[in-house]
Design a protein that fits this description.
The protein is an alpha+beta fold. The chain is built from three helices and four strands; from the N terminus they run ααβαβββ.
Length: 112
């Protein structure tokens, strides 16, 4: 059973980003066209390569194969006020870690 928690409506990334990340992002945005170029490169190349890598070699979490994990994912997305549920993959690894990739279509990767 998932417990009721407060929904964080209207959550902005600036409310939880690390101060060093925020400072680096501000410096990057100050350089003309760098943000546009970075977004284009990420969405057209980096995101595609990682998407192929993760979808081809990791376990995708769905309602059918991992219903409990998927339920937690949906719940976390509701709490964080996300408009859509991103794809979640499980990577076979003994370290405790997780990360996200993607600009237009973010993907979450959890280590097993």
């Amino acid at each position: 059973m998932i417990y009721n928690k407060q929904i964080l409506t209207g959550l902005e990334h600036s409310q939880y980003e690390h101060p060093f990340d925020k400072k680096a992002l501000e410096k990057m945005r100050a350089i003309p066209f760098l943000t546009t170029a970075s977004e284009w490169i990420t969405s057209n190349f980096v995101e595609r390569v990682y998407n192929i890598q993760y979808t081809g070699s990791h376990l995708k979490v769905t309602e059918q194969n991992y219903p409990k994990i998927y339920q937690y994912l949906e719940y976390a997305c509701r709490i964080l006020d996300l408009k859509r549920v991103p794809e979640l993959y499980i990577s076979w690894d003994y370290s405790i870690n997780a990360h996200t990739i993607g600009y237009k279509n973010p993907v979450i990767i959890l280590n097993s």
